[in-house]
Design a protein that fits this description.
mainly alpha; single chain; 7 helices; about 210 residues
Length: about 210
């Protein structure tokens, strides 16, 4: 898809639509799946603690996958396998461009976990309160977050600029996530999700 956009659009158009496409992949396949699960199993919306746990679990699982990928990438870069030279060059460029590069991973994962938690809590609250607006808030939050990350990747900025600039660009989403989570906790309905594990009527969310 990205190759097709790059071939058919100007460079600026490719960056804009490519970033939106990457963001929408996250919105549709992560937030969309969360909505589908919540509508099928109402026990997920029973209380705010469970909703927050779903978000932390999603963010934590992603952190494990990202950490494993980074470890494998580092091992490849240190090996003499075919293609390792390119990996070493990319790693060296990233280290040279980013001060205290070892701290980037923990900061980025903290930002991601907060955003995963707030967005999924909003989605589960939308089912608990039968309000579509909350779903779209969560959808847009995670879509925008990954859209910015996608821009950094497809623009080729990684390794050319300090990664801290990218973290600074997505940090506002994490800051906003804290009051969002607290607001959701305060406004969680007492009767939300009482019919545990029963499918929700498709027309029940208005």
């Amino acid at each position: 898809m990205l190759e097709g956009l790059r071939a058919s659009l100007s460079y600026g158009g490719y960056l804009v639509l490519g970033s939106v496409y990457i963001g929408l992949l996250t919105g549709v396949f992560e937030i969309g799946v969360t909505l589908a699960a919540a509508r099928k199993w109402q026990s997920l919306t029973r209380d705010s603690n469970r909703a927050i746990a779903v978000g932390i679990g999603a963010g934590g699982f992603e952190a494990i996958l990202v950490g494993a990928a980074a470890l494998i990438g580092g091992l490849v870069a240190m090996s003499n396998l075919p293609g390792s030279e390119e990996a070493r060059t990319a790693l060296a460029a990233s280290v040279a461009a980013t001060p205290v590069v070892w701290l980037v991973g923990p900061v980025e994962r903290t930002i991601a976990i907060l955003c995963h938690t707030s967005s999924r809590t909003l989605v589960l609250l939308s089912v608990a309160k039968r309000r579509w607006a909350f779903f779209w808030y969560g959808f847009l939050l995670l879509t925008a977050l990954d859209g910015i990350a996608g821009f950094a990747h497809i623009s080729g900025k990684l390794g050319q600029i300090s990664t801290w600039w990218i973290e600074l660009a997505i940090a506002p989403f994490a800051v906003a996530s804290v009051p969002i989570i607290l607001w959701c906790v305060r406004h969680w309905p007492v009767t939300g999700g009482t019919d545990a594990d029963k499918p929700t009527d498709a027309a029940s969310i208005d």
